[in-house]
Amino acid sequence: MSIIETIEADYQKFPANQSYNIYAEDVYFKDPLTEFQGIKRYQSMINFISTWFKDINLELHSIKQIENTIHTEWTLNWTTPLPWQPRISIPGWSELKINTDQKIISHIDYWHCSRWEVLKQHFSL
After folding, report:
1. Closest Cα partner for 37 from 46, 47, 26?
2. SUPFAM superfamilies recorded for this chain (predicted)?
């Protein structure tokens, strides 16, 4: 399976059974909330998402590779475990840099909305 096919499959089943073997041991990750390095930290972040949030859906809109960069467009949705069960939606994109071994060495997520807009979704009715 190609790295593109693996990423597509991972988006469909996110956050369950992710293909961590496509990431370098020292992978760099950044999104609007956090920044770190290392596959163990990446696995911990995915585990936190799957443990804390409910009804998670990561919809892949597009994926393309240009040289050593894979670009994905997506929307992440989940239900936050608050008494009123707000449904959260974050549209965004990722830039994944791959090395010559076809391992992801950098995964940077960008959002089409601000952190404030995401926070407000938790309190709007």
Report:
1. 26
2. NTF2-like
- In the chain, pLDDT over 70 holds for what percent of residues? 99
Please spell the DSSP secondary structure of 22-62, one letter per residue. Answer: GEEEEEEEE-SS-EEE-HHHHHHHHHHHHHH-EEEEEEEEE
Round to whole Å and give the CA distance between 39 and 92. Answer: 22
Tell me: pLDDT of 124 over 90: no
The residue extents of the domains of the chain are: 3-121
Domain 3-121 has CATH 3.30.1540.20: no
Name the residue among 55, 47, 48, 39 with its Cα closest to residue 88: 55
Instruction: Report how far residue 30's alpha carbon sits from residue 16's, in angstroms, rounded to the nearest whole number.
Output: 20
pLDDT for res 12: 97
Q: What tens digit of pLDDT does each residue of 56-90 get?
A: 999 999 999 999 999 999 999 999 999 999 999 99
Half-sphere exposure of 24 (CA within 13 A, CB side): 17
